[in-house]
Write a sequence for this structure.
């Protein structure tokens, strides 16, 4: 039975409190109405001859807005640019790469023999009777010392500096194609880029100015005069590393090389050979970029070489005096390339004890 004021049959369906009660929580907002697929004709449209009461609306576009599409496109372009620049320039110039490399300062001193250059057909005999009898052969004569970390460089960085210096010494003093040929690339690729112009100018326009002598960069002989009689070159010397400042390592190298030479294209197996000695004192400098790229700055090169004639120009190539030859003129003092302490003269004279006793 209904309450007071209610019709006896109850609240009619569709009236307040009737079947509509369950739909009171549903809000038909404007977006809901717009999304409806069916739309009732307006009163004016219904006056016309329209049989159906409603019409079907076209589906709404639910794609991205124009602004959203532009934003996505800009992000894609920025991302693509970042990838391209990363591939194109994978290494950025470090902020602490250090100052530019200094030009190489070099001195090349020819050593004249006191008399005839001794020779023999057996190169082993020559070595056994010379101060180089106990020298090691080739790169074995350039051992790496034990590496110790410094205040600002690790053990591995010090070892790397020593290894690069050794690599330069081997290529510039022991490679046959460098010694008696015109190959220089094996040496050039190890230099800091700041020194390449000086290196190229030295070989393009050699000059005895302490800056542009090819024989200050490497050892090479006049191939029209001499050739290697034995490729087992004898070597002895030392390598030392030290830190000069927080961003620089320096390696000091002091080595004596003894070559067995004979006249070029002698054509006779019995042609006599003689020994030629080169003392090289090299100072290398490394910053962290040099260590990363396996390159060196060669800042000092001090070379004594003989037997040579002081009258010959040793700037571009060394012109060895071979077995039985004598110098046209000697130097001002006897110089022993096997002993520590260097000569200061522009030309010296080989000490008697530095020649083979044959």
């Amino acid at each position: 039975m209904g309450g007071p004021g209610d019709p006896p049959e109850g609240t009619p369906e569709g009236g307040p409190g009737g079947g509509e009660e369950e739909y009171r929580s549903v809000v038909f907002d404007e977006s809901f109405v717009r999304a409806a697929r069916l739309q009732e004709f307006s009163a004016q449209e219904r006056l016309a001859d329209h049989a159906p009461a409603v019409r079907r609306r076209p589906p709404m576009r639910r794609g991205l807005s124009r602004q959203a599409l532009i934003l996505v496109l800009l992000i894609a372009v920025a991302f693509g640019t970042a990838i391209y620049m990363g591939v194109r320039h994978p290494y950025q110039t470090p902020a602490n790469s250090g100052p530019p490399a200094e030009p190489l300062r070099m001195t090349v001193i020819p050593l004249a023999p006191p008399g005839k250059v001794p020779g023999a057909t057996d190169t082993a005999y020559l070595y056994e009777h010379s101060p180089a009898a106990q020298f090691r052969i080739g790169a074995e004569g350039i051992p790496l010392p034990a590496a110790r970390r410094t205040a600002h460089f690790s053990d591995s960085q010090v070892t790397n500096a020593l290894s690069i210096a050794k690599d330069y010494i081997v290529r510039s003093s022991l490679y046959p194609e460098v010694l008696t040929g015109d190959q220089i690339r094996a040496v050039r690729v190890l230099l800091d880029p700041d020194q390449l112009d000086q290196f190229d100018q030295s070989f393009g326009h050699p000059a005895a100015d302490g800056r542009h002598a090819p024989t200050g960069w490497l050892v090479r002989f006049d191939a029209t005069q001499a050739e290697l009689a034995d490729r087992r070159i004898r070597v002895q010397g030392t390598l030392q590393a030290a830190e000069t400042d927080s961003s620089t390592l320096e390696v000091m190298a002091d080595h004596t090389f003894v070559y067995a030479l004979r006249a070029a294209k002698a054509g006779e197996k019995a042609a006599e050979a003689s020994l030629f000695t080169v003392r090289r004192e090299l100072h290398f400098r490394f910053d962290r970029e040099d260590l990363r790229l396996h390159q060196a700055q060669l800042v000092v090169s001090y070379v004594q070489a003989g037997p040579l004639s002081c009258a010959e120009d040793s700037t571009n190539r060394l012109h060895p005096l071979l077995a039985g030859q004598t110098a046209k003129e000697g130097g001002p003092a006897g110089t022993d390339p096997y002993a520590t302490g260097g000569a200061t003269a522009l030309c010296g004279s080989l000490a008697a004890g530095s020649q083979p006793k044959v």
Observations:
- The chain is about 25% helix and 20% strand.
- The CA atoms of residues 109 and 304 lie 5 Å apart.
